[in-house]
């Protein structure tokens, strides 16, 4: 902490050199008596060219110590205020998001219901179109009501009823329909009939 303060409070010339920039006065430094003037070529221009090439290569510190020092520099009051603002923002967005999602679900259900109802409507329209067809009406009258056209002779077939099943046949069918474990239990628990 003390090193950080000393770096911050250091001279402006020193901090500019650490960042890759030259002295405040353009790199000429204190004037030498009788040597060169400010406009003269020489080391001043060379420093300027190195300064411009040093600026783009600067990168952010990536070490764990640099990151931890950044976290230490955060003001706790600001962090609490930021957390409160973020939580209020999350709470104010939670209810509208829940409403939006529930409405989307309801909309999908209504859309599926509408698709099913439209299919039913198409089926009923087909039935109505089918029932208005004279050939369909004639076929239904012959099949259901045994109607015939004038001049035709009706022929009704009567099939004899099959003979009724005996009690033994019904009992055998009942046992065949049972699961195997029921038949097994019945064979153990019910005595044989003689």
Q: Notable features of this structure?
A:
194 residues; mainly alpha; 8 helices
What does this structure look like?
With 194 residues, the chain is mostly helical. The longest helix is centred in the middle third of the chain and has 56 residues, at 76-131. The termini are far apart. The chain has 8 helices and no strands. It has a domain at 77-145.
Secondary-structure blueprint of this entry?
Blueprint: H1 2-8, H2 12-18, H3 43-54, H4 64-72, H5 76-131, H6 134-145, H7 167-177, H8 180-189
Summarize the structure.
With 194 residues, this protein is an all-alpha fold. It has helices at 2-8, 12-18, 43-54, 64-72, 76-131, 134-145, 167-177, 180-189.
Principal-axes shape call: elongated
Radius of gyration, CA atoms, in whole angstroms? 50 Å
Question: Helicity, in percent?
Answer: 55-70%
Mean pLDDT: 75
Instruction: Give me the count of strands.
Output: 0
Strand proportion, as a percent range, falls in under 5%
Regarding quaternary structure, what we see is single chain
Indicate the low-confidence ranges by residue numbers. Answer: 22-31, 48-55
Largest sheet: none
- Structural class of the helix and strand makeup? mainly alpha
Distance between the first and last residues' Cα: 107 Å
Secondary-structure element order, N to C:
HHHHHHHH
Total of DSSP H or I helical runs spanning 4+ residues: 8
């Amino acid at each position: 902490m003390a090193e950080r303060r000393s770096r911050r409070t250091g001279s402006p010339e020193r901090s500019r050199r650490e960042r890759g920039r030259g002295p405040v006065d353009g790199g000429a430094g204190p004037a030498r008596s009788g040597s060169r003037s400010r406009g003269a070529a020489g080391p001043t221009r060379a420093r300027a060219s190195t300064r411009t090439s040093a600026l783009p290569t600067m990168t952010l510190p990536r070490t764990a110590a640099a990151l931890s020092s950044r976290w230490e520099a955060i003001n706790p009051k600001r962090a609490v205020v930021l957390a409160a603002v973020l939580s209020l923002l999350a709470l104010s967005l939670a209810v509208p998001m829940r409403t939006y999602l529930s409405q989307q679900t309801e909309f999908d259900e209504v859309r599926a219901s509408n698709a099913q109802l439209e299919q039913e409507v198409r089926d009923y329209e087909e039935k109505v179109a089918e029932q208005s067809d004279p050939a369909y009406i004639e076929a239904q009258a012959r099949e259901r009501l045994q109607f015939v056209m004038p001049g035709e002779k009706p022929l009704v077939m009567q099939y004899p009823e099959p003979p009724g099943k005996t009690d033994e046949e019904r009992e055998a069918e009942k046992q065949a329909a049972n699961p195997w474990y029921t038949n097994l239990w019945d064979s153990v628990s019910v005595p044989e009939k003689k």
